[in-house]
Amino acid sequence: MMWGTVLGVIAFVVFALIVMMLVFGHIYRLRAGFTTFSANMIGKTVIITGASAGIGKEAARDLACRGARVILACRNLKKASDVADEIRSSSGNNLVLVRMLDTSSLASVRTFAAKILAEEERLDVLILNAGRGTTNKKTMTSDGFELTMATNHFGHFLLANLLLGLLKESSPSRVVVTASMAHNSLKKLDPKALNYENGNYQAFHAYSQSKACNILFARHLAELMKETGVVVNALCPGLVATDIFQKSNTILFSIINHIVPFLGKTAQQGAQTIIHLAVSEEAATITGEFFEDCKVSKEASPLVCDTGLAKKVWEASEMYVDLKPEETHF
Q: How large a percentage of the chain has pLDDT more than 90?
């Protein structure tokens, strides 16, 4: 009898939690921001990293439907090619291309950028969206970088620098950087230990630090690009039901994977702020800000609003990726 009561209580609690998550998720999705701008992108070229799934894929689809020449910059060429075929078919736009890019590899970034500079006459929007969760065990790349920082920050930092000249030549142009509210968990950031030289690696810290660096890098790039016609903004897509954390083996990310389908936005909803920053008239005149739900967010932490820290992270990143004089365009 006692065990029956206990099981009944457990079942009730589980049921109540599921109902609460469903209600929260429904309200959260209803409140999600949607871009209201219908601008076409005919004649414009857009590069999107990490466009083979999730919010990157949905942003690519939307921009293709607006007539843009869209370049899917992805590590998995087979997966990206299938997505490109799907987008061409659904949008009626054949100007959807696939190029190889692994943002965790500096060599891959440099090869990709060289190909773009050789083939493309203009670049109107650069969307730095590729990202990964993290793992309990610290994993190093062939360049000697911690994998999460390499994929989410160092590779994108280098790519933006390499394509900056083309962006300036194509101005007015835009750089859009996908970050996350996860940066709020970071209380301090040491620009001299972005690669965890101090040995204090923790899985969620690595992800949060990479997202903080995304915002700080975007903030300083915006400052460097003043008066050039290039605007730079970062964003949080919100809690989105995508597969970014599926390869993570941490307990926290495992929990997120299981509950986000109930709580989170769809990939299409999560892509809206990316699209807004890429196409809206409003975003053409705003730079150096952090957006969520298609508007400037008030939730950015004081840490990522520190312009002095942004400059230090930029300078440290230059040294980490060994940015050469001929790769500097500011």
A: 71
